[in-house]
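Re: that backbone. Tokens:
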């Protein structure tokens, strides 16, 4: 699946209900300064979000486990690269629910220079 995702220039990340990164594309790996293999298995909230933002997003993610809740269609947040730089990304989001299991799908653009 990751090979197909590499066709897209937008950043693509999927995160499991435990916060673990499942899929990334080439654009995401380049932005975060990791290889795709290095990113898989990292915790989205602990490893790639600066400071309190990771905790806030983790709390919001827990709320989204409720089938009545839907994610914000678009939001902008800083992310943390391997070298410690903060970059701002505009994200579009979707949730895939399979019983108790949820996967959070995000596509984004680096808007740091904007």
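Recovered sequence:
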């Amino acid at each position: 699946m990751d090979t197909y995702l590499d066709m897209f220039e937008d950043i693509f990340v999927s995160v499991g209900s435990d916060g673990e990164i499942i899929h990334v594309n080439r654009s995401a790996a380049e932005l975060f300064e990791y290889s795709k293999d290095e990113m898989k298995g990292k915790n989205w909230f602990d490893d790639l979000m600066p400071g309190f933002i990771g905790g806030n997003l983790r709390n919001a993610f827990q709320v989204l486990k409720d089938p009545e809740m839907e994610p914000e269609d678009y939001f902008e947040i800083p992310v943390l690269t391997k070298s410690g730089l903060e970059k701002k990304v505009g994200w579009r989001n979707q949730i895939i629910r399979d019983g108790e299991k949820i996967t959070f799908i995000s596509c984004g653009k680096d808007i740091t220079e904007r």
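The first helix runs from residue 2 to 5. Strands lie at 11-16, 21-24, 74-80, 86-98, 101-110.
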